[in-house]
Design goal:
The complex is a heterodimer of chains A (108) and B (231). Chain A is mostly helical. Chain A has 4 helices and no strands. Chain A has 2 domains: 1-34; 49-108, no CATH class. Chain A has helices at 2-28, 37-58, 67-87, 90-107. In chain A, helix 3 (67-87) runs antiparallel to helix 4 (90-107). The longest helix of chain A is centred in the N-terminal third of the chain and has 27 residues, at 2-28. In chain A, 42% of the residues are buried. Chain B is mostly helical and 231 residues long. Chain B has 2 domains: 2-160, no CATH class; 179-222, no CATH class. Chain B is 74% helix and 0% strand. Chain B has helices spanning 2-11, 13-32, 37-46, 50-61, 66-77, 80-86, 88-92, 98-103, 107-114, 124-151, 162-178, 183-199, 205-216, 223-230. In chain B, helix 2 (13-32) packs parallel to helix 4 (50-61) and helix 2 (13-32) packs parallel to helix 10 (124-151). Classes of the chains: A mainly alpha (108), B mainly alpha (231). Chains A and B meet through helix 1, helix 2, helix 3 and helix 4 of A and helix 2, helix 3, helix 4, helix 5 and helix 6 of B.
Chain lengths: 108, 231
């Protein structure tokens, strides 16, 4: 019960921060308002950096001790990007990469 | 209303496919962490942020604290801060629907709304609202389905969490293709790898985000400023 309450608390925190982020421009900027230069600068530059860090975060458990530790993730990651460059179809890229990963971790 | 619904269903078809797949993956992951479909329903209704929900499963199973969860949400969803700026006047003009439009502005809905040009004869406000609401409906339905299936999955779903990695890779690729300069992406990659090697896998992500932000603030012009300068 205590663990579930803690989980509920984490969910509420996550929801609260997300809503705050989405609502802030509407609360902070008046009609016809423009965000400060620093915010615009970060708004343009931070998202690609954050995505790169999140990719590193997802692959943080990669181990180079054995083939099965790194081949599935790197091959499936490369396949995801290649599929996306080829067709620009988000579903195809995600489903293709994920299925390849699930296949490789079973074979290697 | 019927016309608008038919149009919105057609417009949201790509998101339908993506959200159902990712939603199912999320629901399965969550149920295998010991939390059944009511939890998936709750999270998808009130958090409604694809990539963050996957990260949230990790936080929950890892026994993270409130502060770590808040910081992680700030880091992962920080980009949403900038989505609203695009629609300040548009959403305000929608009156009572405005709060929901703001709440439901995910990556995918943002990209649909950015390119939305409602055909003449349809009510534009109603169309926008339907697009946003249908997207969330797909996401909620997918995650509940995943939660239900997860408990009695007829096959072994190990590795389905790679959907999150793939999602981030796809967003990264899209941003790479759209950007004129790749310095931010490369700085992020370098900051992520350096912090991972130095600090270890349990506590590198927030420092990496702060390091990247610190490196990105000074210097150079923005893409947009540069385009203006060149023209």
């Amino acid at each position: 019960m205590k663990a579930e309450l803690h989980t509920l608390l984490l969910i509420l925190v996550c929801a609260g921060v997300t809503i705050a982020l989405r609502a802030l421009p509407f609360l902070a900027l008046g009609r016809g308002g423009q965000p400060p230069a620093l915010v615009r600068r970060l708004g343009e530059r931070l998202p690609p950096a954050v995505m790169a860090i999140l990719v590193v975060y997802c692959l943080r458990g990669t181990s180079f001790a054995a083939l099965s530790g790194w081949v599935p993730a790197l091959a499936a990651g490369a396949a995801t990007v290649a599929l996306h460059l080829w067709r620009r179809n988000t579903l195809l890229s995600i489903a293709g990469g994920t299925l390849l990963y699930m296949l490789l971790i079973r074979c290697l | 209303m019927k016309q608008e619904l038919r149009y919105a269903l057609r417009r949201t078809l790509p998101v339908f496919c993506g959200y159902v797949f990712l939603g199912v993956a999320f629901g399965v992951l969550l149920s295998q962490a010991g939390y059944g479909w009511p939890w998936a329903l709750l999270i998808s209704v009130i958090v409604y942020a694809g990539s963050m929900q996957f990260a949230l499963v990790g936080l929950i199973t890892g026994g993270a604290g409130v502060l770590a969860t808040a910081l992680m949400t700030l880091a992962v969803n920080g980009r949403h801060l900038f989505y609203g700026v695009t629609f300040l006047e548009r959403f305000r003009a929608m009156g009572k629907a405005c709060p929901y439009m703001v709440f439901s502005l995910t990556d995918e809905t943002y990209s649909l709304l950015c390119s939305e040009q409602t055909p003449p004869g349809l009510d534009p406000d109603r169309t926008l609202l339907l697009i946003s609401a249908l997207d969330q409906l797909y996401w909620v339905a997918g995650s509940v389905l995943g939660g239900v299936l997860g408990a009695s999955l007829p096959f072994d779903a190990t590795g389905i969490d790679f959907a999150m990695t793939a999602l981030f890779l796809v967003i990264f690729t899209e941003q790479w293709l759209a950007a004129r300069r790749h310095r931010p992406a490369l700085i992020g990659l370098a900051a992520g790898l350096v912090c991972l090697l130095v600090l270890g896998q349990d506590r590198f992500i927030i420092p990496a985000m702060l390091l990247a932000a610190a490196l990105l603030i000074p210097g150079g012009r923005n893409d947009k400023e540069e385009a203006r300068h060149e023209s």
